[in-house]
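Bit of a strange request maybe. I'm writing a small parser for structure token strings and I need a real example to test against, not something I typed by hand. Could someone generate the tokens for this chain?
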Amino acid sequence: MIVTDEEDLTAEVGRLTASKGVRLIFDPVAGPYIEPLSECLSEEGTLIIYGGLANQPGPFPRQLAIRKNLTLRGYNFFPLLGEPVRFGRAFDYIFERVRNGRFDMPIAHRFPLTSVAEAHTRLEENRHIGKIILEP
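Reply from user aminoacidic:
Good idea to test on real output. This should exercise your parser:
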């Protein structure tokens, strides 16, 4: 895990990949992070933006996209909800991998259901890394 408040994202990705970059990035934040994430992509890498947590404009990295032949695309999960067969396959695929530990989801905080307001406040602060869980 790279903590962007403490580490240089592009330098650390370069170190971890021997300066090759990564083929695929899923980005729920967007905004000003689009350019540094694009720098982390390998030649012909893909950046999939599926959220806008930054709530700021995301400048298109034109020079990087051209130089590296990058693909930048958006993804919207909601149309999948209207396709029961595809949704079922996607759910089964994800659930199986979560259950057997192949998809590791870090948990930032756990709250009892009676503390839903506190959990929501923590979520709105947007300073956590990982999931915020409400437990019965």
